[in-house]
Amino acid sequence: MSTATRRARVATTLVAWLAFAGVACAQAAAPPPATPAPIATAAAATTPPGPLPRVRLLATGGTISNRDGGRLTAEELVAMVPGLDRHVRAEPEQFSNVASSQLTLAQWLQLSRRASAILAADPDLAGLVVTCGTDTLEELAYFLSLTVRDDRPVVVVGSMRNPSTVGYEGAANLLAGFRVAASAEARGLGALVVLNDEINAARDVTKTDALRLHTFTSGALGVLGVVDRDRVVLLRRPLKRAGARSEFDLVGVSALPRVDVLLVYQDAPGDLVRAAVDLGAKGLVLAVAGAGATSGTQDEGLRYARERGVVVVHATRTGGGRIASGPPPPGGQAPDRPAPTVAAEDLSPVKARVLLMLALTRTTDRNEIQRMFEAY
Questions:
Q1: Does the pLDDT of residue 47 top 90, yes or no?
Q2: Which of 18, 26, 110, 144: CA 20 to 30 A from 205?
Q3: In a domain, 36, yes or no
């Protein structure tokens, strides 16, 4: 190869190398490509949630608190409910800590007044939850429904198993109860009973089994609603008066009048009726057979009661159906004849007792009391 040819090849290689180096340097010096702008979306900014509703807990005791080794307090009940702080701000308060059968009528009055005072003093409070033993829960709930005169929910909760038992359902019932008490849709329904994620009217619900969890039902009337994972669902609204529509004011009521419940059965003696009257009963609820049948052996005792001004109410012992009321006598009640009985409509005997006690704080007139049984 000639010297001239070698020089030409070296020159060509040098030119190519310089061209490559220039491109590389230019690329290194160039700014990086701009990041594409994000695509705009139509979704609005998320609005921060408002403050959680506040719900007061009034704990009275019962199986729901009856842990082995000592009863749970109101604060401990709230603390054991998982996820409660996602739904409400719970405010625990201890009213008592006893079995429901140990609550006295004097304590019923105190509890109703306390609940009313809390609601009156705190208009921003969403509602109340009351814990109670299940044995007499339906009676207390109905009493609160008639005497706490406020539209906000008063929810009564209990459990069939105690906190030391496998399958204890108290925490779940409390969570459901708090959610119902915080629900605006639950206003104006009177007191409510919430167990097993079901919402029942205090007037209608009855404990139907001594042991099973699914014990509280409203018979043919059915539940008012349910508590589901996503929300509280109300299915119907009761027509009977309760809550803010109640006429029963406890102002000036220092004690509830004595009202006894007696059962109709074969050859039931009338002397039990006499004994109740002589011991101070102002009213009697007779748990009658069927739609109003009484034992003939009780007639003399019932006549004795009515002649002494004791109001007698007939309530069916069957667990369903109603007692039909008769029309008042034309021209009023004859002074020489005992007043007829009051029909309890479809109230159970124990709930008829609750309503009769309250009715007697206002009147002893048979027709006026019959009006109350038809309205409530």
A1: no
A2: 110
A3: no
